Amino acid sequence: MDARSARRRTASLQFEPVESRILQSVAPLIALSQLRAQAAQVHQLNTTSTSLSASTPTPYQQRRMAFNAHFLGKFAQGPGLYTDQRTQVYLKAEGTSNQLLHGAVQLAFSIPLNTATAATGVANLTDKNIAQTGTQIAMDLMAIPGAVDTHGRPTAFNWTVNGGSGGIYTSASGQGTVQIRYFPGGSHLHQGFVGSTAVIFTGQITSTGVNNILR
Fold first, then answer.
1. Measuring CA to CA, which of 22, 49, 123, 182 is 20 to 30 A from 13?
2. Distance from C-alpha of 101 to C-alpha of 128, rounded to nearest angstrom
3. Is residue 212 domain-resident?
4. Quick one: residue 152, left, alpha or beta (phi over 0 = left, psi -120 to 50 = alpha)?
């Protein structure tokens, strides 16, 4: 055996250590890109919302906001509950509206002793299935000056939706007028009397549209 053959037999493979590295992942890059896109969308929405603050409703939205309701029922009138009240009136009636097919209303207001002070009150309109949906519209009432009948009872109020509303009207806003007609008759109460009434609400109500569990 010559020297060249001996060298070939003793040769072997050898491995040298190299610097350890962690494989790169694209997941963080994708997440970062998504976060940036979301931030841009939020900024665009905020900008759009600010620019639309002076906008007006479209014809479709105007039809959606329109609210009218008609109720027939009873009213009772009696003495005021506080020393600055001349009398108080309570109404309870049932009827329908373009937004509540079968509804009811309870309405109460007081007439102050000071004739220069407007009568104020509250109204609560409820859907017949309020036990299942919680749908109700709570309103604050302010009498319209000069709108009274021959007995000094207010016949027209301005109303605004308040935070007591619920169901599909949670966080709703709105305003309008309510007309009241009184038809005295029936049995008299102690220091007061009862009769029939007709109540008509007109105006606009805007709801968020995210509180209807039946939608």
1. 22
2. 8
3. no
4. left
Two tokens, residue 105: 């209303």
Gyration radius of the chain's alpha carbons: 36
Answer whether residue 97 is part of any domain.
yes
- The owner of tokens 């010559």 is 2
CA 11 – CA 104 distance, rounded (Å): 101
Q: 152-173: buried (b, 16+ CB within 10 Å) or exposed (e) per residue? A: ebbeebbbebbeebbbbbbebb
The one-digit pLDDT tens for each residue of the chain (215 residues) are 555 555 555 556 565 665 554 444 444 444 445 444 545 454 455 444 444 457 888 998 888 899 999 999 999 999 988 999 999 999 999 999 998 889 999 999 999 999 889 999 999 999 988 777 788 999 999 999 999 999 899 999 999 999 999 988 999 999 999 999 998 776 666 667 889 999 999 999 998 777 666 55
CATH number at residue 154: 2.40.350
| Contact of 186 with 194, CB cutoff 8 Å | yes
Question: pTM for this structure?
Answer: 0.70
